[in-house]
Amino acid sequence: MELGEPQNLLVPSNTTESEGAELLAAVFEPLVNYDENKQVVEAAAESITTEDNITWTVKLKSGYTWHNGEPLVAQNYVDAWNYAANQDNAQGAGYFFGRIKGYDALNPGEGKEVTTKEMEGLKVVDDTTFTVELAAPFSQFRTMLGYTAFYPLPKAAFGADGKVTNEYGEQPIGQGLFKLDKPYKKGTDQTVDLSVYDKYPAKKPNGWTKLQFKLYNSAETAYNDLQANNVDIHDSLPASAISSAKAALGDRYQDQPDAGIGYIGFPLQYNDEYKDVRVREAISMAIDRKTIAETVFSGTRAPADDFINPAIDGYRQGACAACTYDPGKAKEQYAAANGPAKLELGYNADGGHKEWIEAVANNLRANLGVEVTVAPFEKFANILDDLDAKKYKGMFRMGWAIDYPSAENYLSPIFSTGAIKTGSNYAGYSSKEFDDLVAKGDQAPTAEEGLKFYQQADDVLIKDLPYIPVYFYRNNSGHSTNVKNVKINLLNQVEWADVEKA
C-alpha cells in the first residue's frame, strides 16, 4: 500500500496525522471501531459503560496478546494514557486526555514541575477492568476511544527512565492484526514491512500474511505504480489522476463519501498580517470553491460551507456566509482592511495538492489583485514540523480526517486553546467563547443536547475564521489487479481482514 512518510516515530500518543495513524491502525486493536452507520462497536473492549457520563468502566475482551506474547491487561492502558498526558513527555496527542480527572496535575504549565506520574481518574480494578473518572461529564467519551491516542502500550515500550524508547518507536509491539518484521528507520527506509500476527483473536485475512507500506513523496508517482501493479492499494489518488482513474481502473476505482475537510489555515499566533478577520473573510470570499470542486477534482469534492462535514450529525448547509464566492465584495473588503500586498500559500507536495492550491492562488491573484507565492514542502511532516516550531508564516494547506464520528471532533482538537500546545491547533487560535461552548456541549447529558452547543461553537469559528473551509472530501482510492474486496472505513483506513488476493 502507498503511504506518505509518518511525521514521527511510531508511538500512538505522538501520532496525530493520517500517515502514521494508518500504519499504527494495522499494528494495534482499538478499544472500539465504528460500523457503516457511524455507530460505536466494541473491538478490544468487551464493554464500556457509565451511569453519569463521568465515571466509565472499561472491560477488556479475553484473548488479546501483545506481539511479544504477553497478555493485554488493563494496566497497559493506564500506563499508556498517563504517559501520553504528562507534559514532560511532550506527546502530540496529549491533549486528548484533558478531560480525565488529574490531567491538570500532569500539566502544571511551562517551567513548572510535574510532581506525579498518574492521573487521579485512572484506576485498575483487575487485569481486564479499569475505570476512568472524568473531571466533568462528557457524553462522547466512549465514541472517542477508537482514536490512535487511546491505544495501550506494553511494558516493553518503556525504558528504565519511564520514557517510551526510540527502539519501541521504530518497531512498536502492538496487540493488533499485524506485527512489524523489523525496525522502521525513519528518513532512510522506503518501506515498512509487516506480517499477520498469528495469535490475533479476531478476523484475519484469507490467503495472505504479508503487508508492506511503500513510502512515497509523490501521489502521482504512487498512482503510476498502481497502474503498473507495483503497488496494490492507493487510498488518496491525486487530483491530476481523478478524471482518468475511472476509465483506467474500471471497477478497481472507488469514490465514496468521506468525513474529511480541506482548509486554508492562518498562523494567527505569530503573524499579525492575518489578524484582521476582514482580511480572512475577503480571502475566503475570493475562492471559487465550486469551480475547484468541479474542475480540479472532477466533481469528487464538494464546496465547504461549514466547519462540520455533512457525513456527521450537526452539519448545516450554507452555515458559513463568508464561504460563498463573491469576488467583488472580497476585493472591496480586502482593500478596506488593508490586507497584505503579498501572500504565500504553503502545501505538502506528497499529498497530490498542487492543482487545487495553484487554483486558489490564481483566485487570490485575480480577485484580490495581490502577489501570491506558492510554497511546496516535500513532505506533510515537514510543513507540520515548521508550523509546530512557529517557523512558517504563510497561509497553509491543512486537512482533517476525523478521529471519531462526532461533531466535537471538528472543534476541540483543531481550534481549542488547549490544542495549541498538545493538539492540532496550528493556527494558534484561542477564543474563550468557543472553549466555553464546547465545554457545555461536552457536559450535556445526551449527544443530542450536546450538539446544540457544538453548533454554537461552530458559529464562533464561522465568525472568526481561523481556518477557511474550502472543500469536503470524498475518498478516491484505487487498487491493483492483484487484490479485491478493498474497503476504506470511516477513518480513511483499510479494512485489512477483508482484503483478498484476486
What can be said about this structure in brief?
With 502 residues, the chain is an alpha+beta fold. The chain is built from 16 helices and 19 strands.
Describe the structure.
- This protein starts with a strand and ends with a strand.
- The chain contains 16 helices and 19 strands.
- The strands form five sheets. Strands 11, 12, 13, 14, 15, 16 and 17 form a seven-stranded mixed sheet that branches. The chain has a four-stranded mixed sheet with strand order 1-10-9-8, with helices on one face. Strands 4-5-7-6 form a four-stranded antiparallel sheet, with helices on one face.
- A hairpin with a 5-residue loop joins strand 2 and strand 3 (40-42).
- It is an alpha+beta fold.
- The chain is globular, with a radius of gyration of 22 Å.
- It is 29% helix and 20% strand.
- The mean pLDDT is 96.
- This is ABC transporter substrate-binding protein.
- It holds the Pfam family SBP_bac_5.
- InterPro entries: Peptide/Ni-bd, SBP_5, SBP_5_dom.
Mean pLDDT: 96
Distance between the termini: 15 Å
Q: Number of helical segments? A: 16
Number of E-type strands: 19
**Regions with pLDDT < 50 over 5+ consecutive residues?**
none
| Largest pleated sheet | 7 strands, mixed
Helix proportion range:
25-40%
Structural class: alpha+beta
Provide the β-strand percentage band: 15-25%
Radius of gyration: 22 Å
